[in-house]
Design brief:
single chain; alpha+beta; Nucleoside Triphosphate Pyrophosphohydrolase; 3-stranded antiparallel beta sheet; hydrolase; NUDIX_hydrolase_CS; NUDIX_hydrolase_dom; Nudix_hydrolase; ADP-ribose pyrophosphatase
Length: 188
């Protein structure tokens, strides 16, 4: 048995019951009662999410970002284009869709960088990060409840935005560091 499989069993929490609490448009919340490895029980509050994509879009040595208001933070954020997966939608399809919807650009090449869980302590959301290059102008198609502005940042500007807190979300910070590695090594 591999080390990973062994540790998974060693630390596994077996679900005894699951109680739905909320079903929304984007997320659902449930409270699970679990049996811990030591035989005791505990409750886990779990946010279920369909998954999402984000796109590091590079044009003329600049990264395309969007600025929009984020109600949970009560402030505007500068982020890379991103959005949730539609039911049955492949991450690559969603990345292509979100890039054009939010920035008005289409990618000549688009490839995966990595996938990661955003908050595994309480949510199952997985985010798929893509790199898009060879961009050509398409058409912005924002959702009815989306209000944002698109701009292009140099790597130095993006790093400055991180220091200033204008960029403070994990997906965009991850993208900036991936871009930095790409400029140094030619690989994501």
């Amino acid at each position: 048995m591999s080390e990973t499989k062994h540790n998974a069993k060693k630390f596994e929490e077996v679900t005894i019951s699951s109680q739905p609490v909320f079903q929304g448009k984007v997320i659902s919340l449930q409270v699970d009662t679990v049996r811990l490895p030591n035989g005791e029980t505990a409750q886990r509050e779990i946010v279920k999410h369909p998954g999402a994509v984000a796109v590091l879009a590079l044009k003329d040595d600049k990264m395309l970002v969007v600025e929009q208001y984020r109600k949970p933070l009560e402030k505007s954020q500068v982020e890379i284009p991103a959005g949730k997966l539609d039911p049955g939608e492949a991450p690559l399809e969603a990345a292509i869709r979100e890039l054009e919807e939010e920035t008005g650009y289409r990618a000549g090449t688009i490839r995966p960088i990595c996938s990661f869980y955003t908050s595994p302590g309480f949510a199952n959301e997985i985010l798929h990060l893509f790199a898009a290059e060879e961009l050509t102008k398409g058409e912005v198609r924002l959702d009815d409840d989306e209000f944002l502005e698109c701009e292009a940042l140099t790597l130095e500007q993006a790093q400055q935005y991180i220091r200033e807190g204008r960029i403070s979300d994990a997906k965009t910070i991850t993208a900036v560091y991936a871009w930095q590695a790409y400029t140094l090594t030619g690989r994501f």
